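Lecture 7, part 2: worked example. A protein chain together with S-adenosylmethionine.
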Amino acid sequence: MENQHLKRRSLLTGVAAVAAATALPRVARAAIATPFSFDLEPPLVDRAEFVEWMAKNRGEDRAFLEQRYDRLQAMVERNDVWDDAVKRAFMLTPREAFVQKINRSHSYDHNFLDIGYGVTISGPHLVGRMTNSLDLKLGDKVLEIGTGSGYQSAVLAHLTDKVWSIEIIKPLAERTRGTYDQLIAAGYDEFKAIQTKSDDGYYGWEEFAPFDKIIVTCGIDHVPPPLLKQLTPNGVMLVPVGPPGAQRVLKIVKGIEADGSTRIARTDIYNGRIVPFVPFRKLDGDRISGTHNG
Ligand SMILES: C[S@@+](CC[C@H](N)C(=O)[O-])C[C@H]1O[C@@H](n2cnc3c(N)ncnc32)[C@H](O)[C@@H]1O
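Predicted complex, written out as structure tokens:
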């Protein structure tokens, strides 16, 4: 018995050994035969073909792959995702690796899920609509405010190779950094593109500014001026704006007039529908205290 166990352990090498030692779900426990590249095209037209291709090339769990496929169909039907590149990004991102173990069987449910620390991972439809509305292109620099589980930035990393993400809750930021590092060790090279830090995202990330795109995943009653400043001319920001628990998701485009002045165009990506978000909190020294609402 002991010998068999040792023999089995010695067969686990490289990627599988790293992943087996972690708390990651089965998604990351198999070696990834085909590393990510921006021209990777899993077949998206047929469910069985998709599952077969992903199981073979990415070593992921078939049951989760089936659920991922079905969720994408619902997202397309409800017009929450429309570009092929974003559909591919969704289909290549193992959402089950970013939810809490207790919720893993709900990874592809419509709704948001608790991830601890009083915050949530947004539902797949919201992530889809916000991601698609960003108009992200390969090579764009994108900043996310509110790393949370890490799922949103993981989707972004399949669309561009330059992703920054800030999370205010330090232990959550550290836990999520650990998730990315374990997935990278298991062969998800695409997550090397994501740089993270724990800080108050209200002030952006000056060192790497300007950003072509900014996505804010916590709700606030105004557009943070430092974020607007760190957006490139013609840059796009997605930000939930409104009173606590009743935000509207705005798409802000920063235009520059001939005289050099800034012109801000706003549209509501849900045509006025209210979407409640986790509050945009404030750091006071190294303590989280209140919000940035006026
Ligand atoms: C809806 S949740 C996370 C969603 C996340 N994008 C994901 O994929 O799981 C919003 C996150 O914003 C974070 N947050 C709130 N205020 C913040 C701030 N001032 N700076 C950075 N992150 C903040 C919260 O702690 C929370 O993790």
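DSSP finds nine helices and eleven strands in the chain. The pocket of S-adenosylmethionine is lined by residues 119-122, 145-146, 148-149, 151-152, 166-169, 172, 200-202, 217-218, 277-278, 280-281 (CB under 6 Å). Keep this in mind for problem set question 3.
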